[in-house]
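Known limitations

Files may contain more than one protein. Parsers should not assume a single record per file. Below, a two-record file is shown to illustrate correct handling: read the sequence, read the token line, then continue until end of file.
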Amino acid sequence: MASRICLVAPYKELAEVARSFADACACAFDVETANLEDAVTRLPELEARGYRVLISRGRTAELLRRNTALPVIDIKINSYDVLHALGDLLRAPRRVAFVGHASVMRDCKRISDLLSIPSCAIMFDDDAAEYDELQETVRRRLQQDAVDVMIGDTIPQSRFVNLCAEFRLVSSGPEGVCEAVERATAVLDAIERERVNRDHLSTVLDMFEKAVFSLDHAGRIMHANRAAATMFKTNRNEMLGRSIEAIDPALAVAQSAIEDGIWEVGRVVETRHGRVLCYIYPINGDDGLRGTVFALESVDRLYTIEQKVRSQEQLKSKFVAQQRLDDYVTCDPRMKAQLGFIRRYAGTDATVLIVGESGTGKELLAQGIHNESQRARGAFVAVNCGALPPTLLESELFGYVEGAFTGASRKGKKGLFELAHRGTLFLDEVGELDLALQTRLLRVIQERQLMRLGSEHQIPVDVRIVAATNRDLEEMVSQGTFRQDLFYRINVLKFETLPLRARAKDILPSALLLLRRHARTHGTDVVDLDADLRQMVADYDWPGNFRQLSNVMERIAITASGPIARLDDVDFAISDIRRPRRRKPDRVERDFITGSMDEIRLRVVAKVLEEENNSKTRAARRLGVDRTTLNRWLKDVGERAGENGRA
């Protein structure tokens, strides 16, 4: 295995000493020679080789330590090294000058004084770098105070050796090198243990689906798990050392928690990558500085987990949409075009309002919208707002807690909104809601939260609303019986069904489809209608639309005596459609168009209003005028009626 320790020798003799016993050391290390100026320059190369610990001595070690994140171990100058340089001076005393960096030469001067060797010291500050000026300082000092021997480190050896007759280098011996290698080995072992522990912790954190950051006291990222990199679409190595705010400004909440030292769980923040739930755990260090563990969880993921739990109950409740948009069969060009729009509506999550007469397939369309939406796997919950009294409907929609009212279940009850979570809630006949319920419904749609009856706790819900009505909601708004703000909330994507009388091409195909479906249900062999029965079905205007048509076809399927139903056989079963109510366009009564143009117009207005169930909005649309003009015409009717009464 390649060595992870490198000894950077600032002079050749030290490199030779190190190599001389490198093979005998328990821990392998490499030796590189680089003087003070070259050592820092070679740092990138040494780091690229994968060394984890560096060894050097004196000023070279200090410079390496300042320019690398790797630990740097000093080769200490011990007493043996100093005595080796001073040994022969004890027998033949000569004056000595100790020249070099203070960190190296200070102990040499002390030992010299203990041995009573006459000496002086010219020591440099560790930050000194202008060696030309230092050389001049040494020259002047030696001229004033002559010495016999100069003893120093590598700087005097390379630059000041010519200032004295004899120069001696305080060289590190095998003992100092061996002691430095042993300390480097201990540091390497500690680094390896820390790496194993860190990798183990990192592996554990990577198993979490929450994004986890470890932050220092300044909010800088010291660690990020895999989920964090995935959530914020950033490489983990690029995150390290950066401020948590630099990842996303919304994450600044962690910094305030570090400063306050307060745990916080459950705060929701909006990041660039969606809403997340924050878990902030400040940690006090031994030095008083705070760091923190900062975990984030996607709100959508929480909804997904919650949905898995809720789906078990939803499957039991059978809140499933059975119909699809393909089941809405039509030959009418206008309805085909409108179905194209409703498929586009289904692909969104916007609220849909379906308007049309009873029996025109509004719930079928609602189920089809759900099944073609992204919520198709969720529940489809339908409620007829006109089928229940207001108090009962309120508890059904919003649920209740134990003791909310007399007769309430001890366990409480989930409302339809909760049951439709992550799915679709179909509010049929929404125009039948009373004003108090309209207010509560508006708040839930706006806030996406509800409170069960008798509760003080908000429950978040994610529900798509599809509403339907056969009433003129705009007219109800003008009359004050329907809230204007609720109307605009549900009237986002509007779809208007056409009555069967306006879709002449759909009557016979729909009748035959329903006839055969009912025949299969009741086990009969009826598959068609004779010519007379077809004509009767086609001429009728079907005020009950498809629901009425289905009932009549079911009667025929049961009472017909052969594969082709004949009018004579089923006449008694279809007496309610014997007289056609729909008139052909070319059979206009003569008296309808008699009189002045104003009188004819008033008759037309009255007829259209009757056919549109007194809906001014639909009547105005059919007549090609706005509501203001229609109201003016109706006013004329009233004034004329008054004049006739006075006459």
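...continuing to the second record:
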Amino acid sequence: MLKVLLVDDEPFIVQGLSLLIDWEKEGCEIAATAQNGKEALAYLKENPVDLIIADIKMPEMTGLELLETIRREQISDAYFVILSGYSDFAYAQQAIRYSCMDYVLKPVEKEVLTEIIRKAANMSATEIQLQEDKKQMERAYLARNVISLLLGKYDDINLEYVFNHMRLSGGVRYIDIQLVGALELEDVEDMEMRSLQRKLYQSCREFLKEDETHCILDVSSEENIYDVGLIYCDYMAAKNDCTEKEYLEKLLNYLKVALKQDLVMLVGKKVADIAAVSKSYGTACMLNSLQAFHDRKNIYYYEEEIQVNSGILLCKTELDNLISAIEQNDKVRIHEAVDRLFDELRRVGAMGETINLNINYLLFQLIHVATEQDDCVNQEEILHLISESTFEDGLMRGSKVHLARFACEYAEYLAQLRKNVSRGVLALIEQEVREHYAENLTLRDLGQKYYINNAYLGQVFRKKYNQSFKDYLNHYRIEQAAQLLVRTDDKIYKIAEDVGYRNTDYFINKFIAAKGCTPSKFRKQSLDTKKV
């Protein structure tokens, strides 16, 4: 609702304006009335309005003087309309000089007042949209500078911009907030996951309120990672009169209720200030790969998961033997090495912290080995995907069986990296889509068919086609459906089934998203075009 201030020294004119139109119907409310410019000025200093309609000649302060004062002293940026019984162009000229929206002669007609109201409403809506667009651009530019800091690729210009546009303090952490289970959702397309990700981003901003700029969308550009980043500073918990853990738990619970989804927080190492935030970001990335080997939690803290303690035993000989067997893709040696590692852990009476340290050492070394083969692929994500794919219900995370399965599959992955087999496989997968698009095709099944790790396959597929396999397959199916709509008289439900959709409503929604109209309308438009 636009708030309107009416200013005139003649009460019957104010009353007449109030009754001339249905203000509420036009999306307005008369916030207040004033008998002269001084009275109006006093009100404006305490209350915001969107539109001021003022008589030009009033005692104590005229309408023109009121307009000049509020513009000069920047009291209000409301739209201003002058009412006058004078048609002298000099008055209009003076009003225009101070950004007067309109100059109306008395008596005011209903149609004229209605037109002014609607003009103000349209201008207001346009300005609101422009302001929102500006805010979005500013948020995007700030996020770009923050990401430069996170990646450690920044200069003084990036740092200065962040300092000037974000409230900061000592005690900084990078926190990654992820949708749990996104990695396993083969049947959920990127568009749906992206929608959830945006909802997560919006909900996080709502919780942060005035600190909303600390929330960043799209920190991770990797496949199957749907997350938002948070730059946490110690002042956030302090101003809420709680501990850091209490604050993060409140945030997590708020987000879980808002999304009705399970989430996980990866809390990076605390650093002194924003200039060192890349160190915190790196440790959060480590937690992403480690969580697949440890019991599921809602929040992982770097300090708790990475125990740096010289008194904890590292079974380096056994671990190095296992790494060697994995590099050589020797399945027999892998199982023997895993047995020896767990025998040694039992012999020394290893408990939680010691076991975690040994597994973490193994994972970091394997990431290093893979990076030497291909540094263009996110090896931490690959490791996480493989370890999750080898985990089954009923197993203990990080158990002997889990570790042996993981080690064997990771060995296959390293062998594929050395052969660079993905290049030839992508051509075969294109053919699979062309010939079997109506079937239940998944990267997991295709990976097994062509003996290539599906996590690695997913990344190289996105690199070549700039989209996920799920979206590629969906796009191909929709194109085939479009051809059938034009070339046949088949019912919509049959076409949906023929191209691989078992649910007609789901097919229609996907078709609208791709083509901008329903299948029926698409068919009609195509037929009309042919007739022409």
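Parsers that stop after the first record will miss the second one. For reference, the second record is described as follows. The beta strands are 2-7, 28-34, 51-55, 79-84, 102-105, 172-179, 215-217, 227-233, 263-267, 299-301.
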